[in-house]
């Protein structure tokens, strides 16, 4: 009977000799239960052994290669991220005339000019990681893998604007852009790019006077101070 009663009184590990974070202890000389990290500790997913994948540099130099295969999935992801974060300034075709630029902001980089066509692929990854000129970095918005995917999409845009039929793999059907646009019911796709109808440009009218400056006569009572009461006693 005593053994049966003793079995029913077990604690099921409710009492454990463990350290609780942020509580003191007499076990260690410094009285802290939370222990400092040992030398060389690396947080999970922060080892970054692949230097090129995380920096876009090899021995401090940019390279013209992706750190992984440029699959269709990578290109689709890069296009989706590019359309979200890059098109406002660079436009969907990468000519540097996005909607923000069309409305007066400083022109963005044109991926199709001679300077940027000559840049290695990792240059774009490096710029997204660290920023360049007026462009801030996008390391908080884009993971390293996404930055590489966007770089791949930029290279695809560059190739598309200068592609010829000789670049098309043998056996692939080639269609005229006008025919594709007509078939899809959007012939304007093949036309020149223009500003959207929602864009409104106007020249400010002259002769518009500003409002009357604030004076004690029209200022709130609480905003009026008696100069004689502002001095030191």
Rounded to an integer, what's the Rg over CA atoms?
A: 32 Å
Instruction: Give the SSE order as H and E letters.
Output: HHEEHHHHHHH
CATH level 1 name of the domain at 78-162: Mainly Alpha
CATH superfamily of the domain at 78-162: Cytochrome c-like domain
Largest sheet: 2 strands, antiparallel
Mean pLDDT: 82
The count of helical stretches stands at: 9
Q: Report the CATH architecture of the domain at 78-162.
A: Orthogonal Bundle
> How would you write the strand order of the largest sheet?
1-2
Briefly note the structural class of the backbone: mainly alpha
What is the global morphology?
A: elongated
Which stretches of 5+ consecutive residues score pLDDT under 50? 222-233
What are the salient characteristics of this protein?
single chain; 233 residues; mainly alpha; Cytochrome Bc1 Complex, Chain D, domain 2; two-stranded antiparallel ribbon; 2% strand
Provide a quick synopsis of the model:
With 233 residues, the protein is mainly alpha-helical. The chain has helices at residues 2-7, 51-55, 72-85, 87-90, 99-102, 114-117, 121-130, 144-161, 177-183, and strands at residues 57-58, 61-62. The radius of gyration is 32 Å and the shape is elongated.
């Amino acid at each position: 009977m005593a053994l049966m009663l003793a079995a029913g009184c077990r604690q099921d590990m409710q009492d454990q000799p463990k350290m609780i974070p942020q509580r003191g202890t007499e076990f260690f000389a410094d009285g802290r239960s939370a222990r400092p990290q040992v030398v060389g500790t690396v947080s999970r997913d922060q080892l970054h052994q692949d230097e090129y994948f995380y920096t876009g540099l090899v021995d401090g130099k940019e390279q013209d290669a992706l750190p992984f295969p440029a699959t269709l999935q990578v290109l689709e992801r890069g296009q989706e991220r590019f359309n979200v974060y890059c098109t406002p300034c660079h436009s969907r075709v990468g000519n540097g005339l996005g909607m923000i630029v069309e409305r007066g902001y400083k022109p963005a980089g044109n991926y199709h000019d001679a300077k940027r066509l000559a840049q290695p692929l990792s240059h774009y990854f490096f710029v997204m990681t660290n920023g360049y000129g007026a462009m801030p970095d996008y390391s908080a918005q884009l993971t390293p893998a996404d930055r590489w995917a966007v770089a791949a999409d930029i290279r695809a845009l560059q190739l598309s604007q200068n592609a010829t039929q000789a670049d098309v793999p043998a056996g692939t059907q080639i269609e005229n852009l006008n025919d594709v646009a007509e078939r899809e019911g959007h012939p304007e796709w093949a036309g020149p790019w223009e500003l959207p109808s929602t864009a409104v440009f106007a020249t400010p009218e002259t002769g518009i006077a500003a409002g009357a400056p604030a004076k004690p006569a029209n200022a709130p009572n609480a905003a009026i101070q008696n100069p004689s009461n502002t001095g030191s006693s």
